[in-house]
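> example.struct
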């Protein structure tokens, strides 16, 4: 059974940093792309960042560029999201996902985690 488990969420002040982790189990994901999305209450799921199978290519939402960094450790089947200079409007549940290729579209990801809550206080 495929499982994605996110961790690292919590409460942070505006301008602060958090590092999220997503551990994959059940199969080997080293040949797949991994991504982070977020969803705030009452809003659609929003792309944040994606990384290809090797970690050599990354993609970021405009809002994340220069502040967030996505990386992966294929030996550990884990993807990370380092978030710096966080803003209150980035309060959301952050979810990781696995797909055949890096994409900004939710429909291209077959497996999803349950998410981890990130709250940025002003």
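> example.seq
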């Amino acid at each position: 059974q495929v499982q994605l488990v996110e961790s690292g969420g919590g409460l942070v002040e505006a301008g602060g940093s958090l590092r999220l982790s997503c551990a994959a189990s059940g199969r080997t994901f080293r040949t797949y792309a991994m991504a982070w999305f977020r969803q705030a209450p009452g809003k659609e799921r929003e792309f944040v960042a994606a990384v290809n199978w090797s970690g050599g290519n990354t993609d970021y939402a405009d809002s994340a560029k220069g502040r967030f960094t996505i990386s992966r450790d294929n030996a550990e089947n884990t993807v990370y999201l380092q978030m710096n200079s966080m803003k209150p409007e980035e309060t959301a549940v952050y979810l990781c996902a696995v797909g055949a290729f890096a994409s900004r579209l939710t429909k291209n990801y077959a497996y999803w985690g349950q998410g981890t809550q990130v709250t940025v206080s002003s």
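> remarks
The mean pLDDT is 95.
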